[in-house]
Amino acid sequence: MKLPEPDIEGKMPFEAAAQNRRSRRLFIDKAVSLKQLGQLLWSAQGRSDSRGFKTVASAGATFPLEVYAVTGEVDGLELGLYRYLGETHSLELVQEGDLRNKLAAAALSQQFIARAPATVVIAAAYARTSGRYGRRAERYVHMEVGHAGQNVYLQCEALGLGTCAVGAFDDGAVKELLGIKEEPLYLLPVGYAR
Question: Which residue of 19, 99, 150, 169 shows the fewest CB atoms closer than 10 Å?
Fold first, then answer.
């Protein structure tokens, strides 16, 4: 499914987004739009030019991150797990159904995840970077996921949304629930903050 084109102009200055950035765990009962979700996914791992560069710096352009969206209340999108395809700015359905309650359970019962309209999941395929950088790859991958997470935070601020980076979860349970090969590193529930 092709996503609406990302907005590369924006309406909020970077400085305002950085000043206002906070972790927000309480969401009102309001769906996010497909355009907003696409904008968030693009900020995490979208293409930024025709040469294949992305919105996030990557050691040696090895691009070890995979970005997924667990959706619940996204206008114009069925419930499910989607893989973000940055090269084409599109979504690929991986799994149908509402996974939010099970994802919250795998995240040590943090119930705000179940109430979020969507959760951005960032996972890593370490081998893409370790083939080039050996033991230092883990460090580089973790730097990259930090860059992606901060982009999602700042993009949320610019869109009038909130998020909270979640690192407290059972890695194996999240991986099994989502049926992914990569190692999950970040859960970023998103929605309109209360």
Answer: 19
Tell me which architecture the domain covering 14-191 has in CATH: 3-Layer(aba) Sandwich (3.40)
Q: How many CB atoms lie within 10 A of CB 33?
A: 15
**Each residue's pLDDT tens digit, 43-67:** 999 999 989 899 999 999 999 999 9
Per-domain residue ranges for the chain? 14-191
Condensed to tens digits (0 to 9), the pLDDT of residues 161-176 reads: 999 999 999 999 999 9
Closest CA to 179 of 83, 105, 110, 109: 83
Between 34-45 and 137-159, two packed helices, what is the crossing angle to 10 degrees?
150
Partners of residue 54 on adjacent β-strands = 47
Q: What is the pTM of this model?
A: 0.96
**Beta pairing partners, 90:** 2, 85
Burial of 61 (0-12, 13-18, 19+ CB in 10 A): exposed
